[in-house]
Design goal:
The structure is a single chain. This protein is an alpha/beta fold. The chain has a single domain, classed as UDP-N-acetylmuramoyl-L-alanine:D-glutamate ligase (3-Layer(aba) Sandwich). It contains ten helices and 15 strands. Strand 9, helix 4 and strand 10 form a beta-alpha-beta unit. The longest helix is centred in the C-terminal third of the chain and has 16 residues. The protein is globular and about 55 Å long.
Length: 314
Amino acid sequence: MSTRVLTVTLNAAVDHTLYFPSFQVGQLNRVENNRLDPAGKGVNVAKVIKALGQEVAVTGFLGKDNLVPFTNYFAAAGIIDHFIKVDGSTRVNMKIVDESTAEVTEINFPGVTCQAKDLAALELEIRLLAQQGGLFVFSGSLPKGVPDDIYGRYINLLHTFGCKVFLDSSGKALEEGIKGRPYAVKPNINELSQMVGRSLDSVDQVRQVADELLAGGIEQVTVSLGARGAMIVSKAGSWLAEPPDVEVKSTVGAGDAMVAGLVLGEAQSLPLERRIRLATATAVASVMLPGTQACTMSDVEHIMSLVKITEVKR
């Protein structure tokens, strides 16, 4: 039996993806196709987890003024909704896709501004959900009104309930969240480099920083390396996963899909090597789809056999 999964998205978004045959800066461009997706990193993680067959619940903050895309999607997908509804509109993120180059330009609007009462309501909701146990996933940036140390505070709270926490963020939110000693973190190579203040140009350098995080109380560190794949490090060992070459439709949400694969592997108690294979295949399946659509388990299972896994010796 798998473990219960809950994702927390403090800064949700509506992704509006615009497709152009060729996007020319400074000129008139006509949209060839477009799509709207309820998103935000934790929502994206939940989408994929549910599509891969795992029950999942979601919470965080949503603006009251544009709830419909989220409530309709959660109801249709069978995702359990525990979001706190706050004043204002959930932010809209524009994704401009140049199909001739596969380049994606992102324009992110500001999100909601949270009040003290909103933070108190969310903490109460997390406490209630934590009483039932499970895996919690904290993903993404922080909206206005939310302190930088919020992830660390919530992680410390969840320790008291014996819940495992996955953290995927960046900047101060990541740095402060790490102080709470989450079970697992998944920075990308740029976020990790920014956090340590130096360039990380080799597998050995990445592993060294990961080992430092393990020494600080984190049990699992996964670093996404873009097209080069990903590396997972724990006290049980380290593995490098190299993805196959595929046709890329959209890289938006690939990191979230990787988190979904890692969380699913944890929920099903898979061996670490199997988890990084599953997570990498899930990310690859994600980039083969437009927008932030969720891939299917059949897609993932096909790709898993094509992922190359190498053990990285200490």
